[in-house]
Amino acid sequence: MSIEQYMPDFALEKAYDVTVEGLRKHKIKVVFVDLDNTLIAWNNPDGTPEMRQWLHDLRDAGIPVVVVSNNKYERVKRAVEQFGIDFEAFALKPFTFGINRALKRFDVQPQEVVMIGDQLMTDIRAAKRAGLKSVLVKPLIQTDSINTQINRWRERRMMKRIKAERGGIDYKREM
């Protein structure tokens, strides 16, 4: 298993560090973002003022934000409807099913999209498979739902390999 499949194009402290300027610089037209621990803390469905400002800034710039989540439809709908953003639920990351549905729905090419997520094993791997640019962010909180805890164990093993082969992942404040 090559670490290339898990190496993000960018590593940022948080999703909200992805700016309109950074997206334009990299010719990104649409942002796909994971839900739990990336856009919102998995246990805080209301989000933060910073998150709401980020969505507002991207919307004002004409850059659609689409949540691409492995969660069930009802869970994702309940989480994002208050923010007025689109979503693809049951995305089955690390496979590309949900990403491909979103690409088709928004009629965009993979090189025009960035996927932001907090997990190498699902978000970054799926973005790589689909040909999208990827942004790895630190989880918003240090606890995970039970489903994610298994992936975190696998992720820690991959991070050790990345550290050994590449010196680790350097988190920055902009793309």
From TrEMBL:
It holds the Pfam family Hydrolase. Keywords: Hydrolase. This is YqeG family HAD IIIA-type phosphatase. It comes from Streptococcus oriscaviae.
